[in-house]
Amino acid sequence: MRKWVLSGILASEETYLGHLEALLLPMKPLRAAATTSQPVLSLQQIETIFFKVPELHEIHKDFYDGLLPRVQQWSHHQRVGDLFQKLDLKVRGNKECKDQNAKNSLEGVQHDLLKHTPSCHPDYPLLQDALRISQNFLSSINEEITPRRQSMTVKKGENRQLVKDCFMVELVECARKLRHVFLFSDLLLCAKLKKQTGGKGQQYDCKWYIPLADVTFQSIDESESSPVPQIPEEEVEALKIKISQTKNDIQREKRACKGGKALERLKKKLCEQESLLLLMSPCMAFRVNNRNGKGYTFLISSDYEREEWREIIREHQKKCFKSFSLTSVELQMLTNSCVKLQTVHTIPLTINKEDDEPPGLYGFLNVIVHSASGLKQSLNLYCTLEVDSFGYFVNKAKTRVYRDTTEPNWNEEFEIELEGSQTLRLLCYSKSMLCRDDGENTDKMVAKGQIQLDPQTLQGKDWQRTVITMNGIEVKLSMKFTSREFSLKRMPSRKQSGVFGVKIGVVTKREHSKVPLIVRQCVEEIERRGMEEVGIYRVSGVATDIQTLKAAFDANNKDVSVIMSEMDVNAIAGTLKLYFRELPEPLFTDELYPNFTGGIALSDSVAKESCMLNLLLSLPEPNLLTFLFLLDHLKRVAENEMSNKMSFHNLATVFGPTLLRPSEKDSKIPANPAQPLSMCDSWSLEVMSQVQVLLYFLQLETIPTPDSKRQSILFSTEV
Questions:
Q1: pTM value?
Q2: Cα(518)–Cα(499) distance, rounded to whole angstroms?
Q3: Closest among 441, 395, 535 to 223, alpha carbons compared
Q4: How far, in Å, CA of 336 to CA of 342, rounded?
Q5: Where in the numbering of this chain does the PH domain appear (predicted)?
């Protein structure tokens, strides 16, 4: 059947090529005539009549010449999907060739061919991809032919343009509500999406609106008087675990080809869980007031969105000089028009994504922030880096402040962990001399920008250079990505010298110590001057500083204390994390790892405590004493949570995978790379289990360990 379909395609292509060749024949003399003193046709007329004919002929001739020998030498295992991929990509590359009949025909034959290709055939995924490319291209052509409505007419013949719309979380009497916010050229409208009943189409209910001329923003001092109620991080993390488990269940149903009601129930469950996470996650306030002083509060995840909204509202306020009121009829008409005007049609949930959309990157992204140019005045400038995770953005790194310059030259490298990330954001701030008691940032944002993390571009081993342009300022970056399956491998110990990558028992025996010197010295330096550092252990240190410290410890440099005293405290925190990450065996050991993850899943609290404590005391003595030393330190860090923003949960998120992640042979991650989404969700489940183990020990008030062991760790002076 496949050969019959392909034979039909060949016949169709042969006819199409004949038509194109017939059109090509008169082109040469017509072009020549067009250059004489008395043209038959103008060059513009020729270009219109024979638009892109040579290019189309070349594309389809290449396709025909490739397909013909494969059909002539036919076998059941013959592959042709790659030819359709190339054809679709070439046609897409010539988007101005709007021969839509040919493109619709191409999509139709691809449907027929896919229908008669077994799912186990090597051609099946290639044909699926080719069909996706073709469908996406046709959709974009249709959008150009029938463009989306962008404005509505108001009285006096003026147009009210839609500038921006998106889903946001509004805080209403301490309750979080999902809203669709529409910014028009003259007003801000907050609407609620009504539930669809009785076959009715999408409808909105207006909650409030403010003319742009009346919009004001709350200052920092005003914002302090109404703090945002926070959702406990443990609840957010527990919801993430449920989401990953549900995604795994959906993938299992799909692989079993069961489908039906069970799959639909799981999808509905995932939708409910992700909707709840969307409400719970954001915690940064964006407040707007109307002319009477009434305030409305949205919750967002990043300063980036807050500044973006402020900028675009202020820009359009320049053209709005008068306040106004809408009648109930006008307001109803405006609200009804939102259905046709909207640009964001679905709530931003992964359940709403297409199956072939990439799940994001999992692993480590190394970023070098080189320099900035285009500043109009000297500033004390620094940059922060954010990436998205589970639909909201998290601050991951911060450069040092480059003082009093128009051309800062940082050249600082950071290693950022990615969890399904698709976007990297860069925010530039001018350092303020003001300091708030609650640790909130008072520095002025100078510029912001973002880039998409393209897996195809980043999959190579080489550094990728890029420039982010924002508000006339250019920041140069280099990036390199390492996928999680490679970045998190624990390497077997191949050396006896140094401390990194060497078994912890070997190091303590050589040093005649209970706890490795590197752990003690890093902890002491952090407790000396880093306990109030915002994001300590979460914010990445400069990679070059970390490597310098690593080399100093490996070489047993006697000046390592002096070197540390001159370094940023985040680099010291990064060195400590790197030491535990590079251990050839995790601190909790490969042997006991499955027992720890099993024990944390117990529902009976008494049984769980007995199991977890017995497992902990089963660790080898160097591992146990080092963990207790680190645990006491992390608890002291959490005591300063008001200043450093590092709760037990934040610390467990940072250190859990570092201390527990097993060697590759003990990992639960499936080895089959053909299921990337399932693999990513398995990663998430395993990482979350590791976080829960460490969080459990952090939350225990006391750990009843043998007195001799705890005394030896707390009061030992051995080096």
A1: 0.65
A2: 8
A3: 441
A4: 11
A5: 161-318
